[in-house]
TrEMBL record:
Protein's UniProt keywords contain Membrane: yes
Lineage of the species this protein comes from: Eukaryota, Fungi, Dikarya, Ascomycota, Pezizomycotina
Keyword Transmembrane appears in the UniProt entry: yes
Protein name: Procyclic acidic repetitive protein
Residue intervals passing through the bilayer: 7-31, 37-63
Domain of life assignment: Eukaryota
Keywords: Membrane, Transmembrane, Transmembrane helix
Naturally occurring in which organism (per UniProt): Pyrenophora tritici-repentis
Length: 210
């Protein structure tokens, strides 16, 4: 009886050691073919041995599940961070593009303002030129009026000279001996004692001295 108990315990411990090695191989995936032998062997060992084998397996599965969950959460966190970073980068790019567009519009507006200022300057120069032309035309008109006035004065002077020559001619004719105070004197100057030419002579004197 004793021998039987010792043999049973030895066989149990041997199976336990064998199961531990098979468990190690199962964990390391060194001998996948032995998995079937391990499953069959689990039904041949006593309950304490089964518990000792299943508990480490369960703990290992739970640990691996926890690590897988942590890796999944870390990957999800990295993915969310990457998405946020990419979205932030896209927003910055969009803001930069909008800023560049606004700068381009500002440059175009300033160019249009510069062109407008240049155009207004040209208009001002044109107005000044037209004013100078108007002043020149006015000056030329005044010169023309002055020339016309001088021409009229010249014509008047010529007329007065002709009248003076005519008066002088008649006076000379009158002063000649044997010449009576005939029709020529009366035709030009009137009667000898007529003073109608005195205003003309006075005007001629003033004109010649003016």
């Amino acid at each position: 009886m004793r021998f039987t108990l010792i043999a049973f315990m030895a066989a149990t411990h041997l199976l336990l050691v064998l199961n531990l090695f098979l468990l190690l191989f199962l964990v390391l995936n060194l001998f996948p073919v032995l998995n079937l032998f391990l499953v069959l062997n689990l039904f041949l060992v006593p309950t304490p041995t089964l518990i000792l084998v299943l508990v480490p397996i369960l703990v290992l599965v739970l640990v691996r599940a926890a690590k897988a969950k942590e890796r999944l959460e870390a990957h999800h966190h990295l993915l969310q961070t990457a998405k946020l970073h990419h979205h932030h980068h896209l927003v910055q790019r969009a803001n930069l593009v909008q800023y560049l567009v606004q700068r381009a519009n500002l440059v175009q507006y300033l160019g249009q303002r510069a062109n407008l200022v240049q155009y207004l300057g040209q208009r001002a120069n044109l107005v000044q030129y037209l004013g100078q032309r108007a002043n020149l035309a006015q000056y030329l008109g005044q010169r023309a009026n002055l020339a016309q006035y001088l021409g009229q004065r010249a014509n008047l002077a010529q007329y007065l000279v002709q009248r003076a020559n005519l008066v002088h001619y008649h006076l000379v004719k009158e002063s000649e001996p044997g010449n009576s105070q005939g029709d020529s004197i009366q035709w030009s100057l009137g009667a000898k004692n007529d003073h109608s030419n005195q205003p003309f002579v006075a005007f001629l004197s003033r004109f010649m001295h003016s």
